[in-house]
Structure formats: C-alpha cells, structure tokens
Amino acid sequence: MAHHNEDNEGSIGTSMHGVTAREQVFSFSAHEGEDVPSSRAVRFDEPTAKFALPVDSEHRATVFRPFSFAKPHMRAFHLGWISFFTCFISTFAAAPLVPIIRDNLDLTKSDIGNAGVASVSGAIFSRLAMGAVCDLLGARYGTAFLLMLSAPTVFSMSFVSDAGGYLSVRFMIGFCLATFVSCQYWTSVMFNGKIIGLVNGCAGGWGDMGGGVTQLLMPMVFHVIKLAGATPFTAWRIAFFVPGFLQIIMGILVLTLGQDLPDGNLSTLQKRGDVSKDKFSKVFWYALRNYRTYVLFLLYGFSMGIEMTINNVISEYFFDRFQLELHTAGMIAASFGMANFFARPFGGYASDISARFFGMRGRLWTLWILQTLGGLFCVWLGRATSLPIAILAMMLFSVGVQAACGAIYGIVPFVSRRSLGIISGLTGAGGNFGSGLTQLIFFSSSRFHTADGLSLMGIMGMIFTLLVAFIHFPQWGSMFFGPTSDELKSKEEHYYAREWTEEEKQQGLHEGSLKFAENSRSERGRKAALDGSSHSTQPENENSGNV
Amino acid sequence: MAIHNILFASLLICLLIQSSHGATKERLFSDLEKSALEVTATPSRVGEVLAAGIDKLSITWKVSSTATKEPEFKAIKVKLCYAPASQVDRPWRKTENELFKDKSCPHKISSWSYDPAVKTAQSFDYTLERDIPTGTYFVRTYAVDAKDHEVAFGQSTNENKTTNLFSVQAISGRHKSLDIASVCFSVFSVLALFVFFVNEKRKAKIEQSK
C-alpha cells in the first residue's frame, strides 16, 4: 500500500478518518526527508516487537483478533464500538418505555412522533462536525467528549414534565450518535487497510446493535425498579440513570485505557509539521459536485434511516397492536436491532463477493436487491395481523435493510478519492435525515395507523431504492449500462484525477488518487482478473462489511 | 407427496386456529345490554380537577329493574374509562366495538361477585391510583357471566359520554431526590472530563519543556 500523504490529511475536518473502510489513513505525514518533528523519531525508535499484534510500518495492526484486549489496537477497537453501542442505547432508550411515558406526560401521537424525529436529527450535524473534532482532539477525547457531555442530557429525563421537555431532551441525547464517526476514526488509525473493512464493519454493526439491546434493557430495568417499590411514573425516570451511568463509565474507560494512536496519545506526541494541506472548501466542493453523493445520501436514508425509525416505533407498535406485555414487546423489538450483529457485515461481504464476479455492477445490483427486499418485508410487516407472521416479516425486513447498509458502504469508497471523508460523512448524515423524514411523514400524526405507516414506508423505500439505477461510473458502468466506450473516460485514472485541477496535478497532489485508481481496477469484475492486473497487490475485495 | 400432505394439513390447522380464535374474539360491545346497571360516580371534590393518588371517587351501582339478562350475572367489574376528549390523537386509547380490541377502559377499579338476593345499591370509595394518567374520565360497570364474558353494562355518563365527566391530574413522577441525584451525576461527568483534559494538557506541556 502506498504512502498516501496528501489526500484528506489537511485542514480540520477534511480527514473524517475512517468513516468508511477503505481510505489509507495516516495521522502523520510519512514524507521522506522532510523535517517532521519528534513524532517520526518516536515511530522509528519503537521496536515493533513490543505490540501484541503484528503491525505494519505505521504500527497499525495487520490482524484482527476480536477476543483480545491487547493494547493499543484491540483495546481501541473494543472501547470504540462499545462507546458507540452505549450511545445507541441512550438515544433509543425512550422508545420501549413510550407506553408509560405517554401516560405520565399526557403525550399525543404527534408529540411522540415529533420527539422521535428530534432524537435522530441532532446527529445529522454532530456527525459532520465529528471528523473535525477528532482531527483536533484525537479519537479518545472525541469519544469521551461525546459520552461525558451527553450523559447530563440522559440524566435530565428526570426533570421532564411535558411534551416540550421530552422532545428537547431526546433531541439533545441524539447528538451522541456522532460516536459512529469517532469509532470509525479510531479503528482506521489503529488497523491496516487490508483488514479495515472487516474491522469497521464489525464496529459499525455491533454498535448498531445497541438500538436493539435497549429495547430489552430498558423494560427490564423499569420492571426491576417497579418491583423495588417505585410507582411507574417515577420508575421510568430512574431507569434512565442506567444508560447515563454506562456513558460515564465508558467515558472514563476510554480516557484511562485508550490511546489515540498506536504510539501514544496525541498530546504527548508532537503534531505533524508543514504538510501540504488539502483545503476543506475544495474537498467539500468536489463532494457537492458529484451527483452520486446525493443518491447515496437518499439511499442510506432508506436503509439506515428506516432502521432507526423502526428502533423508535416498533416496540410501541407490538405493544399496542398485539396487546403484549411491555417486556415482551421489547424482546421482539430487540431482535430487530440485534440482527445487526451479522446482517450488516453480511451485506458488505455480499457486496465484495458480487464485485469479484461482476465488478461494480454486481455491487449495485446487490444493493438494489437487498434494499428492495427490505422494503418488501416492511410492507408485509405492516399487513401482518397475527403475531408470528409479524415477527417473521420483521426479521426478514431487518436482515434486508441492515445488509443494505453494509452494501452501501461497499460502494461509497469508490465514489470519490479526494472527498472520501466528506462523502462518507454525508452518507451517514443521510441516514439520520431519512429517519427524521419517515418518522415525520408516517408516524407523527393520526393520519395513518402505525400499521399502514409501516407499509407505506416500505413502499416509499422501494421507490427510492430505484435511484440505484442512476449510479453510473464511466469506467465501470451501472446497473443497466456498460462502461463508456470513450477511450480516455473509461479509465479509472481519469475519473479520480478529474477531482484535481491542472496546477494541483502539476504539484503531484493527485498521486494518491492515481494509486487508488490502479487498485480499483478490480471493480471491473472478472474481466479485470483476466486482464491480469496482477500488480494491484490488494484490490478492494476484502471483506468490507463496514459501517 | 408426503410433504404436500403435511403442508396442507398444517395450513388447515393454522386456519382453524385462527378462525376459532376469531369466534371467541368477536364479542361486540353493541351486543351488550345497555343501562342494565345504574352507576353513579361522585368525586370527592366536585367541579375541580382531582389529584391522582389523593382524591377519591364515591361509586354506587345497582342492577336496574329493567335488566333482562340479570340471571346470567355472576360478577360485577368496575372500570375507569376515557372520555372522548382524552382519546383525541391517542390511538392507543381508541374505542372499538370488538370487546377484545377496545382500549377505552383500561383501568380496573374493583370487582365484586354478584349476589342476586341483594337488590339495594352497593357503594364504595375508590382512591385514584397513582398511575392514572391525566385526562377526563367516567366510570363503567360490566356485568359478566360464568364464562367471564361481558353481558351487560352501565355507566356514570350518558350514551354520548358528555355528562358527569370528571378530570384527573396525574402525579408528575418527579422527585426532589431524583432531581438532585441527576444534577450530581451530571456535574461529576462534566468535571471528570475536564479534570482529565486539563491534566493531560499539563503533562504534555511538561513533556514538551523537557
């Protein structure tokens, strides 16, 4: 893997380190011959033998051992995904308790729906800002800041006495979903590019599981507190202390056990010296110019977005429609989110396998099939009138949309090289946007029964998924059309190099993009293998069940 | 072929189960005998909003002389029901004709076994439970038969549920001790973060100056 020094390493916020799986992320410039202060000296002095895992020249781990807690790599992985998991628990903690909360606060369906929208909206902005924060403070403090500054918002549920308060608190808690970015940033700094797909996929999927676990955890905690003697309207407030404590504990663990970089912490190592920085405005501009950014934004809105909406509404739906106990409804709702454990990595893996045979076209079809099936089963879930059918439909639906999430991030890395971080971040934000939108339209008013809302949401999802057909790469084609016949434009190099101006090319700033273009030839599918592009040592075919 | 038979048989069984479920579940509210019981519910403070957990209702019920299904009565169930004003934009409190789906009377007040020999009005006091939500209510009594199926009812309001309604204000569920604990932990969280931050910056400065 080449030294990609320049790209996305520049001004604050451009890096969005590792929000997706495939970028070569270096926190330090590895400019040979440039006078970079002590960081370089530190790196080359440390013998690599002192790490528990085999590492590369940047001291990033080259193997992934999920059962290990070795410092610093696996520890960073576990601290990262558990922090993200904890934040998912906090954000969706209210959902399974809504049947109690709505009686205590005299909420209407609109109040509940609007609070659900608010709970996912904050993260649209915090996720975009998080890349910059991690650049400034490092992954450790980025994560810890989110965890420990949003813990007070979780505790403040004890003060809530009306619909307005409920909405504000849920809005504020929602900001902590930006731990998604800090978690991916941290793993990308710690793990080599060859395995980063699997690592990020596991971190993302296991973190998302928090949305499922909370549906089990909160009703159980509530039940225990009631048994201890509290009346229901007080017990649910006490129950919120549990996610609050978890956040504080994780924050302290992150600060004490974690390490920003393989060689130490950001503040004790000196920061890099003069490196040609990439300008945030340019990176942002190229992201906005690329129409695929918007397509992916909407597509993720109807996979991750729908998933988050379901986290908010499904427990109440089962409670009301099938007259279940609170914890039974919670258990069923939990299995939706828990499917993330394997469903999301599976989606990325399926994308990679299809790319091996059919190239980018395979990835696009895989995405379309998974997301459409997800929408179809969502429609079925809304139609189901008996409990076993509803559960079956829900499980199939969960695998469909969650695998689609994984499949989307199998495509994101190829959309742009220069603006990779921003596009990944925007895609992630699209998920929150889609969730807010679907909750607003279908679950915030009495216009639709919740069951009809689910079916209509599934139909809307299937319609928007048709947008996949519009993702076209001149060098690889799209779902229905082949690559362009133009000699020049059908080269990967042309696509990735056109994000740089002539002056920048003359300065050699686009070297990284060219190297990436060479490696991405595998997206041509079988033909690329037959063409003998053997010098791409590690094509983008790794297990990429990512974010 | 054996597989086909098994699948067909299981499909039949499922359908049978569904339909048999349906048979018992299709008992309708409109089939019940109306005004078989005369019910009055008098709040302890008339014309004011009652406080849950504190205020009382004085409830009396009596079997009406016009009740035709009276021989079937085995027990009397008294329930607190939502008035239409409290059902607006709250589909989880909806009134449905099918009795098993109806969600408008979720709060049980009490249950009495019916003694046909006693013909006078029965009355008792009910203190509003602490988990009663804020809303407007009336009282309904169902008479159930030996199979625990409702056969008749009476309510403290008229058919359109517009008269004799009373309002309840729920407890807030908040406690001073909870508020204090919440503030303490929040402050701890923010302080701990800044202590770590400042400490590390200080250590980094010392490292640098070395």
Descriptive overview:
The complex is a heterodimer of chains A (547) and B (210). The two termini of chain A are 22 Å apart. Helix content of chain A is 64%, strand content 0%. The longest helix of chain A has 47 residues, at 109-155. Chain A is mainly alpha-helical and 547 residues long. Chain A contains 22 helices and no strands. Chain B has 210 residues and is α+β, with helices and mostly antiparallel strands. In chain B, strands 2, 4, 5, 7, 8 and 9 form a six-stranded mixed β-sheet that branches. In chain B, strand 7 (135-144) and strand 8 (150-155) form a beta hairpin. The longest helix of chain B is centred in the last third of the chain and has 34 residues, at 176-209. The N and C termini of chain B lie far apart (86 Å). Mean pLDDT of chain B is 85; it is low at 16-23. The A-B interface holds A 99, 102-104, 106, 108-110, 141, 144-145, 148-149, 151-152, 155-156, 158-159, 161, 231-234, 236-238, 241, 244-245, 247-248, 251-252, 255, 265, 267-268, 270, 316, 320, 386, 445-446, 449-450 and B 18, 88-92, 130-131, 133-135, 170-175, 178-179, 181-183, 185-190, 192-193, 196-197, 200-201, 203-204, 207-208.
How much helix is in the residues of chain A? 55-70%
Distance between the termini of chain A: 22 Å
Tell me how many strands of chain B there are. Answer: 9
The largest chain-to-chain contact, stated as pair and per-chain residue counts, equals: A-B, 46 and 38 residues
In N-to-C order, the SSE pattern of chain A is: HHHHHHHHHHHHHHHHHHHHHH
Shape of chain B: elongated
Shape of chain A: globular
Number of strands of chain A: 0
**N- to C-terminal separation of chain B?**
86 Å
Q: How many H/I helical runs of chain A?
A: 22
Mean pLDDT, all residues of chain B: 85
- Residues in helix, % of chain B: 25-40%
User: What is the N-to-C succession of helices and strands of chain B?
Assistant: HEEEEEEEEEH
- Uncertain regions of chain B: pLDDT < 50 for 5+ in a row? 16-23
Low-pLDDT segments of chain A:
1-11, 21-45, 270-276, 533-547
Q: If you compute it from the alpha carbons, what radius of gyration of chain A comes out, rounded to the nearest whole angstrom?
A: 23 Å
User: Main sheet of chain B?
Assistant: 6 strands, mixed
Q: What portion of residues of chain A belong to β-strands?
A: under 5%
